[in-house]
């Protein structure tokens, strides 16, 4: 490879990383000022967990045995809400058009959104793990459990951002997203839930 080609490749890589970081930073700053996405995810999750707890209050052993599935179900439902909100804000503020016509690689836009929503979801999971430990008295802080949650979340959000970008221009995007996404990620989530349960 010639020096000019190597320099061009290095420049392209630098622009790619810069674009990813700029979009992630923008998303984090928007969330810092509005607190729309993470707060909505956390509140939805807390309501869901309380409902699960009331439904299983008389059967503590049964609740503990299904707590892993309940944890992932809560993450999936709240994550779907987060995906809709994260890209919905771009549409509401009409910044999605600016991002699409900007001279950046579309892969940078996709990767940045995956990173942003993954960060939001991981923040949610920190709260959820504490809540599930309190309600169901199960040791979710084990390293293998946390690693499985991390990898499962990355896979789920990676697919979720792709599906959300496909459905965000439709009228029924809030309905279409879970219909298309959940069957797609089920083969990923089931082994993850089993691993966490063990």
From TrEMBL:
Signal peptide (residue range): none
Keyword annotations from UniProtKB, A to Z: Cytochrome c-type biogenesis, Membrane, Transmembrane, Transmembrane helix, Transport
Membrane topology per record: Multi-pass membrane protein
Chain segments annotated as transmembrane: 38-56, 68-87, 108-134, 140-163, 175-196
InterPro entries linked to this entry: Cyt_c_biogenesis_CcmB
Record bears the keyword Calcium: no
Keyword Transmembrane helix annotated: yes
GO cellular component: plasma membrane
Subcellular localization: Membrane
Main location: membrane
GO molecular function: heme transmembrane transporter activity
GO terms under biological process: cytochrome c biosynthetic process; cytochrome complex assembly
Protein family membership: Belongs to the CcmB/CycW/HelB family.
Name this polypeptide is given: ABC transporter involved in cytochrome c biogenesis, CcmB subunit
């Amino acid at each position: 490879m010639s020096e000019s080609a190597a320099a061009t490749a290095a420049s392209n890589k630098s622009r790619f990383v810069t674009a990813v970081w700029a979009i992630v930073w923008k998303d984090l700053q928007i969330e810092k000022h509005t607190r729309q996405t993470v707060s909505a995810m956390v509140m939805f999750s807390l309501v869901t967990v309380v409902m699960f707890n009331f439904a299983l209050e008389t059967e503590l052993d049964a609740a503990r045995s299904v707590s892993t599935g309940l944890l992932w179900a809560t993450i999936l439902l709240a994550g779907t809400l987060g995906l809709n909100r994260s890209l919905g804000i771009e549409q509401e503020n009409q910044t999605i058009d600016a991002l699409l016509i900007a001279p950046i690689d579309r892969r940078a836009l996709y990767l940045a959104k995956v990173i942003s929503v993954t960060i939001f979801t991981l923040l949610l999971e920190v709260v959820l793990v504490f809540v599930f430990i309190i309600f169901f008295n199960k040791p979710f802080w084990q390293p293998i459990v946390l690693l499985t949650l991390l990898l499962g979340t990355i896979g789920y959000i990676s697919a979720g951002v792709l599906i959300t970008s496909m459905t965000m221009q439709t009228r029924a995007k809030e309905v279409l997203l879970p219909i298309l996404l959940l069957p797609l990620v089920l083969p990923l989530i089931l082994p993850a839930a089993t691993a966490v349960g063990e």
